Amino acid sequence: MRSFTHAIGLLTSLLLITVPRQAVCENHFLHGKRVDAAVTSEIERQQIVGASIGIIQDSTIVYTQGYGWSDLKRKIPVTDETIFNWASNSKPLISIAALQLVQHGQLKLDEPIVSYCPRLPAQLQQITPRQLLCHQSGIPHYTNGTVIPSKARSKPDVTLNPLDELDPQKSIDRFIRSPLLFKPGSQTSYSSHAYVLLTAIVQAAGHEPVDEQLKSRIIHPLSLGSFQLDLPGDHHDNWTLAYEIRLGKPEVVSDYAHFWKHGAGGYKSNVKDFARFAKALAESTLIAPSMTAKMWTRQNTSDGEESIYGLGVVVTNSGDALKVSHNGSQDETRTRMVIYPHRKHGIVVMCNTQNCDPARITTAIYTALRKSVSPPTD
After folding, report:
1. With pLDDT > 90 as the criterion, what percentage of the chain qualifies?
2. Which residues, in sequence order, are bridge partners of residue 269?
């Protein structure tokens, strides 16, 4: 126990001495030093190797900043150009793609998805896009139910080409025979598999590969130059390594390519582009205000129980204090997006260390800013 405590003390001391702070050029945010101090303190408290943040105020991205290391051994710092996995913050983005199709009459929220994918097995056919979006489909997540792949994928001698799953129609083979946890619409249970299926539905309803739909309707309009799928391979430009803390020391986590998840957790970018997406979400840039209102409405189950989920986001508070948020968690990353659209501000956070809590960073930032901007604590 003494050696463990000693190791943590050494690590904390090391972080205090060596954590760098990198900002964009010409970044003259008035409260930057106060924010830096708050974020650095929280990074040290949580033993986070590297993180980046973006702050939105008055509907403007006023500050983007990197802290710590993207590669601790090689002493490569995190900057606002460093690429992190979005993890489940991919879900709000594919939700926007789905709602764009709803807006243009190509997808109906309450029509069974068999209309778009006729070859779905019986247990999936009557699920609706709305139920996929608000986690009421009954499709199991990763470990909360029985997950059964397609018959072809189940064969012991089958040889798979992983890149086939660049097509989300192939990705759904991982769980396509899984029994549902409950009758669709009757309960709420978070499911990433549901969002893999939603991506396949977006592709089918949009009559175009999903990556092309995202490029034309989201990526290019917002100029998200660093946005990409999390593909296999090492040494991609600006990608951060991932870490976990073992016995008080940061250890590198092996990279895993999450591209097969698509809109469930397959996207990545730098914090500047993550902030641009959050800003667009807050301003209803990509969908009509009436569609945004649907997105930000907490959904009820069939028996009238209200959930915390809108269509692709977590919705809390109401009126002027309305908060729209989402978290992301993978072995390589922890992320958070929180926006107060009616108050025109928000924060995004990206971390490269397991078991950290980015919500504590957003809270630390809001606490640091409270005297001058008086926002609610996240």
Report:
1. 85
2. 84
The whole-angstrom separation of Cα 374 and Cα 366 is 8
Can you give the pLDDT at residue 233?
Answer: 77
What does the domain layout of the chain look like in residue ranges? 91-206
Query: Token pair of 359, please?
Result: 């919500």
Which amino acid appears at position 229 of this protein? L
pTM as predicted: 0.91
State the fold for domain 91-206: Beta-lactamase (3.40.710)
Split at pLDDT 50, 70, 90, the class of 236 is confident
> What tens digit of pLDDT does each residue of 48-99 get?
999 999 999 999 999 999 999 999 999 999 999 999 999 999 999 999 999 9
* CB of 110 closer than 8 Å to CB of 328: no
As a whole number, the mean pLDDT across the chain is: 91
- How far is CA 20 from each of CA 48, 163, 226, rounded to the nearest angstrom? 13, 37, 23
Contact between 196 and 261 under an 8 Å Cβ cutoff? The reply is yes
Alpha-carbon distance of 148 to 170, in angstroms, equals 14
